[in-house]
Design goal:
The chain is of the alpha/beta class. The chain folds into two domains: 88 residues, Ubiquitin-associated (UBA) domain (Helicase, Ruva Protein, domain 3); 203 residues, Rossmann fold, CATH 3.40.50.150. Helices cover 43% and strands 16% of the residues.
């Protein structure tokens, strides 16, 4: 859409316009700008600008926008058209069925990462059978806390440790823990990977930065300009964080404990090799050592510390 047409379409989002027409106009505007999910983006932004639920937008399709709602909607639309993801505009993202606060200091949690939480939940009976004391899971580079907070919410009796090098990220993780009622079971600690941990852990989870430094410039604008660099860059070959974790993994995992880590496309075998050399084992029967995501890409590496 040429710039002047976009400006006109934006200006049409004004007081008095019925919400459903505003939603449709916005979706058209976004489709022209070519994002992946224009209809969903438009609906979420209309909901946020008006305070109406999805159901209310349908039931009260003719309700006119107030001047304030229209101004908010235009501001949101401009930001989206400039490449800012809807989750960043709203400051929240749904992950594993729960809403998480996100800020510019944390990675926007991705749907692929839900696989890590699912895999950890599959280990629950094995972990609980092994020890009498409450199990402890650690999330390395916790960011928003999406992984560990989801896991604690799904697994009563589990205790968690959220580690991150960024204090503002830890504050977001803490608020998300409070929001989902698991704060009493979660300790948030600043640290450089495993440095503050003495062990022993039953589960070690991580979605570390894994993009090779030279690939960062080629990432989509949504990612490159809005996810923190610290949460993306995995150093020269993308594997720096895994090496840092592998150095102490065996020492802090309990015998029978598990490491579960997300990996980038094409990295699964190299990452598995790195942790095998660090003394972990590919167990395969309880969990395959490489779990594919919905696109069939090896996405989670799962290895065990032998008894
Ligand atoms: N653990 C967080 C997440 O998966 C942050 C990951 C990161 O910053 N690389 O959302």
């Amino acid at each position: 859409m040429p710039k002047t047409d976009a400006a006109e379409a934006l200006a049409a989002l004004r007081a008095g316009l019925p919400v459903e027409r505003a939603r449709r106009a916005l979706a058209g505007l976004m489709r022209a700008a070519n994002p992946d999910t224009p209809a969903l983006d438009a609906r979420l932004l209309v909901q946020a600008a008006t305070g109406l639920s999805h159901a209310a937008i349908i039931a009260e399709a003719d309700r006119p926008l107030t001047a304030e709602q229209a101004a908010r909607l235009r501001a949101f639309a401009r930001r989206r058209l400039a490449g800012e993801p809807v989750s960043r505009i709203l400051g929240r993202r749904e992950f594993f069925g729960r809403v998480f606060e996100i800020t510019p200091h944390v990675l926007d949690p991705r749907p692929e990462t839900e696989l890590l939480v699912e895999a950890a939940l599959r280990l629950r009976p094995h972990v609980e059978r092994l020890h009498a004391t409450p199990p402890v899971a650690c999330d390395l580079g916790a960011g928003s806390g999406a992984i560990i907070v989801s896991l604690l919410a799904e697994w009563p009796g589990l205790h968690g440790l959220a580690l991150d090098i960024s204090p503002p990220a830890l504050r977001v993780a803490r608020r998300n823990a409070v929001r989902h009622g698991v704060a009493r079971r979660l300790l948030c600690v600043r640290g450089d990977w495993l440095e503050p941990v003495g062990g022993p852990l039953n589960l070690m989870l991580a979605n570390p930065p894994y993009i090779p430094q030279t690939d960062i410039a080629a990432l989509r604008r949504e990612v490159r300009e809005h996810d923190p660099h610290l949460a993306l860059s995995g150093g020269a070959d993308g594997l720096m964080a895994y090496r840092a974790i592998a150095r102490r993994a065996r020492a802090v995992l309990r015998p029978g404990g598990w490491l579960l880590t997300e990996v980038g496309a094409g990295q699964a075998k190299a990452v598995r090799e790195l942790f095998l050399r660090a003394g972990l084992t590919a167990e395969e029967t309880v969990l395959p050592s490489i779990l594919p995501d919905l696109a069939g890409i090896g996405r989670v590496v799962a290895l065990k510390a032998n008894n």
